[in-house]
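Recap from last week: sequence in, structure out.
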Amino acid sequence: MTIRLQKFIAHAGVASRRKAEQMIIDRQVSVNGEIVTRLGTQIDPDTDTVKVNSKIVGTTTPDPVVFILYKPKNCVTTLNDPQGRDTIVNYFPKTRHRLFPVGRLDYDAEGLIILTNDGDLANSIAHPRNHVWKQYFVKIKGKISGAEIKTIRSGPIIDGKKRQPVKIRFLHFVNDKSWLVVSLQEGIKHHIKKTFLAAGYPVLKIKRYSVGQIELQDLSPGEWRQLSKTEIEQLTQTQS
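Predicted C-alpha cells:
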C-alpha cells in the first residue's frame, strides 16, 4: 500500500504535513537514496527508505503527545534562528518526543502555541476548513468605531485578497487606545497587524489566549503543560 511522501513524514512525527511539503521542495528528503522534490510522490512504507536531512524516518507512528506553551514576547516560533534570537525551543518541555510547533506567532506577539509530535493533528488544527478558532487580545492605537469593526468582521482585504470573516469583540478604550478580542480561523503572516493597519490602526499588542477550547489559563510566559486525551479530542472538534 502506498502513501504520499509528505503524509508519511507527518505520520512519523518529523513535522507537520505543510512543513514536510516545504522540506520536500527544499530538497531535504530522499527516497531510496534519491532526492525527491515532487509533492505528489507516493512511497511504500514497507519497502522504501525515506530520509530527511540524511536521517532515516521510521515507519512506526509515535505515541501522539500535545503540549501548550506560553510563548514570550521577542521570541521566534522556529526550531532554530540564523540571527541567534531567542526561539521557542528554549522553552520546550524536556521529553523524548520530537516536538514541533503548530502555526506561528509574530516575534513581538505572545501567547498560546501548540507543540506536538503528530503531523496529522497539527494539520487538522491549522487548516481553516476545520474551523478551529484562535482567539487573541489585541491593543491598537486609536479609537476604532463600531462601523469600522463591522467592516473588518466581514473579511479584511490583505495583500490584495479578501480573507475569511473574523470575529471582533470590543472591550474598552484606554486613553487613545482600543482593546479588542479578535478570533481567526485562518492565519496568514502578520494577519492581525495587516488587518488593522489597513484600517488606519497600528497594532501595539497581540496575545493569543486560546486555540479552540484550549486556553492558557494560569500559565506564565515560558511555561507549558501537557494536554489530556480529552483536551486533544476537543482540539479537533469542528466549531461554528
